Amino acid sequence: METLHEVAEIVRTSAEAMSRDEILFYFKDMDLTKEQENMVIEYLLTPHDEEAAEEPEEPQAVEPSKAEPQELTDSRVFQMYMEDIERLPSYTEDEIRMSYINLLSGKEEAIDKITAFWYGRIVEMAKNMFNGAVNFEDVVQEGNVALFVKLKELLGTKQAVDVEEELSDSISSAMKSYISEITGEEDGEETIAGKANLVNEAVKYLEEHNGTTPDKNEIAEFTHLTMEELSDIMDIMKKAEKKGK
């Protein structure tokens, strides 16, 4: 992280434009993939607001309001959870972007920083979806599970992907699917696709975590889907797979 800031300062103050090779020289010990090199170059050559970079006390993550969660739930456990979020370290956009690069390169320690950054965001996303017909805490938990599963999926992929977008889409899809399930709303194509994606990610995570292929009970418990709903989703996935062959 210090290297990124130092090079950014060099690029900013350099009298002449630096070449790609000159910039990458400072990262020669990091063993970056070609995709990660491109991400670093794009970041360093993109103008940034200096005041935002110099004021880490103003992170890009949206901090949840202290009052609003109390209106959504009176659970003491959840209030303690909110207090824990407020005590988490604040990170700048620069730090998180570097953490995304580290995540894709396989550095598992990046997950802690990214999750700390996203916990507050997930609460805000849940507020925007909350309709009073479901348990607010459960919606947040669905988002947290989706975040963790997606991070594990992206870890070490070494692909040029928009991590921010991937995480946001997975979290949003998981929370929408949960709300639809609880409220009994008819599943549209988007909701079914979201549940299928959640099942896929759950299988990948459980296989990696347990070393064996999970059975339906394990998948249902992890995704909070009923056995009937899981069977329906898996049937749809099998039919889609056959059509694709």
Secondary structure layout:
Blueprint: H1 2-13, H2 20-25, H3 34-44, H4 50-54, H5 68-72, H6 76-87, H7 93-105, H8 110-129, H9 136-154, H10 163-183, H11 189-210, H12 216-223, H13 227-244
Helix pairs in contact: 7-8, 8-9, 8-10, 9-10, 9-11, 10-11, 11-12, 11-13
Outline the structure in words.
By secondary structure, the chain is mainly α. It has three domains: 2-45, no CATH class; 76-185, no CATH class; 189-244. The protein has 13 helices and no strands. It has helices at 2-13, 20-25, 34-44, 50-54, 68-72, 76-87, 93-105, 110-129, 136-154, 163-183, 189-210, 216-223, 227-244. α8 (110-129) runs antiparallel to α9 (136-154) and α9 runs antiparallel to α10 (163-183). It is globular and about 65 Å long. The protein starts with a helix and ends with a helix. Residues 51-70 are annotated as: Disordered. Residues 51-60 have a biased composition (Acidic residues). GO terms for molecular function: DNA-binding transcription factor activity.
Number of domains: 3
Helix content: over 70%
What overall form do the CA principal axes indicate? globular
- Ranges where pLDDT stays below 50 over 5 or more residues in a row are 48-59, 61-70
Would you tell me the structural class of the helices and strands? mainly alpha
Number of strand segments: 0
C-alpha-based Rg, rounded: 21 Å
Largest sheet: none
User: What is the element string, with H for helices and E for strands?
Assistant: HHHHHHHHHHHHH
What quaternary form is this? single chain
